[in-house]
Write a structure and sequence with these properties.
This protein is an alpha/beta fold. The chain has a single domain, classed as Rossmann fold, CATH 3.40.50. β1, α2 and β2 form a beta-alpha-beta unit. The protein is globular and about 40 Å long.
Length: 192
């Protein structure tokens, strides 16, 4: 596993200890970011890497110019791996925020992102709840089966890569202002 492109291209990434994480394969990550390149400008984007695992998806976004990435995972080994991978790739930790939390619980507080990358365990079945709480212009979802997409969300891409189905959707609120009680992302940065 390595960073595919950008500032940290070729740098190795490590998976969390314990073997319960299923990192996104390099070729799948490359395909996802090729699709994203036609949908939004990653340069200066605020990104969420939910169910972060190794952090490979968010690190790829940082390497390609994202302004900030918030990594959220409930697993302590995953949080440790994300922090180690950010440091190991030479990326600026001040552009990251690493949170150990249940994703659905964390999303109860208002957050606004240009892009959300969601790669939960394949057993995850609360997609509609997740999308109902998520304020992001574009969302990438990885699963082993079709993901239920609520009315109003626009499906941009739905493609299978072996056992992984990648669904890219655009939010119905993608052109609305962020929630008013949210601090700007620039005030929320810094590894915790």
């Amino acid at each position: 596993m390595r960073v595919i492109a950008g500032h940290s291209r070729g740098r190795p990434l490590r998976a969390p200890a314990g073997g319960t994480t299923r990192p996104t394969a390099d070729r799948v990550r490359e395909s996802i970011f090729n699709v994203l390149g036609s949908l939004l400008d990653l340069e200066g984007a605020d990104v969420a890497d939910l169910f972060a695992g190794s952090g490979a998806m968010g690190i790829e976004a940082l390497s390609r110019g994202a302004a900030s990435v918030t990594f959220v995972d409930s697993s302590l080994p995953a949080v440790r791996a994300v922090k180690a991978n950010v440091t190991g790739t030479g990326l600026d930790p001040a552009r990251t925020h690493v949170v150990r939390s249940d994703v659905l619980g964390w999303l109860l507080r208002p957050h606004r992102f240009d892009l959300a990358l969601c790669d939960p365990p394949y057993a995850f079945d609360a997609w509609e709840q997740l999308l109902g709480r998520l304020h992001a212009g574009v969302v990438v979802m990885e699963s082993d089966r079709d993901v239920p997409v609520p009315v109003g969300w626009e499906i941009i891409r739905n493609k299978r890569y072996g056992g992984t189905l990648v669904t890219v959707v655009r939010s119905p609120q993608s052109h609305q202002a962020p929630p008013s009680d949210q601090a700007p992302q620039s005030q929320q940065r810094g590894t915790s």
